[in-house]
Amino acid sequence: MELNEFIKSFADQFDETDASEISATTVFHDLDEYSSLIALSIIAMVDEEYDVTLKGDDMRASVTVEDLYNTVKSKL
Hints:
- This protein has 76 residues and is mostly helical.
- The chain has one domain (3-74): Non-ribosomal Peptide Synthetase Peptidyl Carrier Protein, Chain A (Orthogonal Bundle).
- It has helices spanning 3-11, 36-50, 56-61, 65-74.
- The longest helix is centred in the middle third of the chain and has 15 residues, at 36-50.
- The mean pLDDT is 97.
């Protein structure tokens, strides 16, 4: 699992936020479009692509996209 690949899949969950705005250091909770529905989309994407089950606590504990990536990687 590569960080850049994860960032691209993460960015694909957003309809209105340009993918170029999302990087490893993006504080995703601060994105205007971020919502509980987006969080569920991200959880579903991680389950589908990486076969990892994320919980709401994992989403809340992650500050940046890279934090979330490291959480997913730790569960592989």
